[in-house]
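Running this now, will post back.
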Amino acid sequence: MPALRKTLVLLLSICLFSVLFAEDEQPVLGKLIERNGFLYDTFYYHMDGEPQYLLQKYDEIAIPHSVDLNSLRGLEFNGVKITDMISEVTFDVHNFRAFKINLDEFDRNNWLQVRNILAKNGIQAWPVLTYHAKDTPIVLDGSMNLVFMKYTSKEEQEETLKLFGLEIIEIIDEENGFYTVQTPTGADPFAIANALYTRRLVRWAQPNWLWKFLPMSTTPNDPYFSKQWHLTQINAQYAWDTETGEGKDVRIAIVDTGVDLNHPDLNVLSNLGHDYLGNLGGAPNIPTYGGNTQGGNDHEGTPHGTSCAGLAAAKTNNSLGVSASCWGCPIIPIRLIADAGTSYASINSSDNYNSMKYAVDNGAWVVSNSWGMQDVDNRGNCTNVPADNNSSQGVDYGRTNGRNGKGTIFLWAAGNSHCNTSMNSFLKDNDLLTVSALEGSNAMASYSNYGSEIDISAGAGANTTDIQGNTYGYACSSYGCMGSLDSNGDYTSGFSGTSAATPVAAGAVALMLAANPDLTFSGAMNCIKSSAFKPSTNCSEGSWTNQSDEWIEGGSKEHSPCYGFGIIDANAMVVGAKNGTCGACIATASLDKCYNDKDDDCDGIVDNDCSNGGKGKAGDACSKAEDCINTADNPKCITDEGWTGGYCSAECTKNSDCYNGTKKVECYQGQCIAKCSYNDVRSGYACLSDKILPKGTEVVANCGNGITEEGEKCDGGTKTCKSIDSSFTGGYAQCNTNCNGYDTSTCEGGGGNLCGNHNVDSGEICDGDTIPCKQLAGAPKGGTANCASNCMGWDKSTCYDDGTGTNEGGSSDNGGGSSKANCGNGFLDDGEQCDDGNKIDGDGCSKYCMKEEGTVKPKASGCALTVF
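Update: finished.
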């Protein structure tokens, strides 16, 4: 550093130093923000030049565990004993307890006065901070992590530390100037961090705190989530023809709640385990090598890490339990978080980096992270998650040092709040892979987060390992073994979420590296992203658009906010990595296997052979076996009274053999069988009284049965208002009684023109919908009409005369037709042909108050039909 610059920086720092440590004064920490009736001080630090804001909770105060509360007796504030002011413990972890302060009026000045009273009596108290999400508490511990600028000499680093009164307590990476330092008693760590950063003395500086992480698991209630369709979804069965990972030292670190060290279906490297929580959160603190504490001794209620481990690397082809992406790959168990059910899953933020470095230094080729900070507030609204320099530094360390310099691959769960990942600054790091969750149909799971930060997607419903025994875990609880796959409770069908999708993908990445251990970081990232395949299933959060990416050969690829660059393809990755053809389509069949949403024959068209010769898939009508396409083995035409001439089936051993991907058929007693529920039967059929009706009986949606059927936009349930229209600022919307959209009257914000958001809002007749012209008054009966541009009626310009004439009533205009604002009130108003007091189709009077031709149509019963 030039002498003049060095002198100026030090002079500026000395001036700042006098401000930071002025007696009985607090440094200015930004601005005051009103939130929930309180004024909050804004604390902030920087990441990549952007301020990351935290808020202080004035009704809480943190006191070290070492303080005897009896020593507070006799201390008063405004005539009230401090021991009478503090009550419940809101945060208790590591060295601190946070207490609720009970005063009728408590603000910034009062908090500072209480803090000063404690300080004058030798007690160091700390503020309790939050970052919006559910007011999750964050407590400073007085230390700070920082990385000096590369041009600073050792002497300049020492002078800077001395000037600010900082003492090195841990050398993390001396070569790159990365240290943990202790800040002086009474000083504000944020002010020091920002002073160092704004004067370009450091690359970054961030106060360390204790905060809460949450596992990203969602417990499903759908009984079909217990199928291992996630493996065939990513083409794992074809990848295993080339590489299984078995016997290879491709280590996968599971950074989570710990792993059952003795599970018979897991290859756990227990001697390499590490526990960053010790005996917190309920799990025992077990000594191991080097005086550390080993990770992964799960206890009651913490099966999360064990289930993740099973999805990534359960022992496979051993006639025991479940299969996994990477067959028995070695697992490094790292316990960083407690179960969400415990009081607080809290760690020191510095341990984010420590856990990553530990994984890399102990040989992890892949690191799976199924956890993150809460991303919704108390009202369920998506909220910004502050970036963490420690985590980004850890990813950077893995990229440059992992696998002997070839780079460790980090995968991260996107989250389960259906929030846009752009609100999570950490996930913007392009050196990690963010994973979204899919259903068996290839549709993005309704809970999964989405956005431009998504890199890949994988299935999230699976059988997997559970902590052993029939007392605790996902499989068993005090209520009994409801989700157990075996009598011992060692396996579960009750694990899902982006937590499940991430280790599925992590195992596939490990499989790729096993096939080519010499693959570099850039080569691996290119292979993962360029090999991912694009499903035909629509994304509800946006279309596929070209997105640039530094790791993809060619610089860009089509990207979806739901799928990222596509569904991870284990086979394409393994074969591509082995042969140097990453990104090329790998054929798995000479003809497409029907209805699996994949281009099996690599001709560039998905499922294109399935309509060849008019042959049908399982569930389609047939009169002989030749009418059915070969979806698996030995296609058959099964005769049943509900189907005229029968319907197509095939032999199978598991659901994936039926290759439809849409739950139209399931493998039952060795056959692909179409069951009788609305979504299971093919177009033109419906269920009624346990029978499948003959062809020609029109299927009618049954609003109110809880199933979103054809012609409905929803059927029960809620949705975040922001996901309906970006003009809303918060709240939830309930599916309306017509099942044609969500009632946005309870949403916060908005107020503008909502027409065009594809939701039928208050005052609208339609929004992006279509309707058969035969249901429109005054319109020719042929064709389909689109919703008018003003959402107040129907554009009849596309209707045509099919030879049956024109409907009665109405007008011939094409500008929207009658609004029928009173439709459903039971009275025949202008523009209506009928009004039976509801807005339901199929009862003779349509939801638009138009007469329905023909007999009353049956509604779907949802009853299952077993044909054998």
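The chain has 14 helices and 40 strands. More later if anyone needs it.
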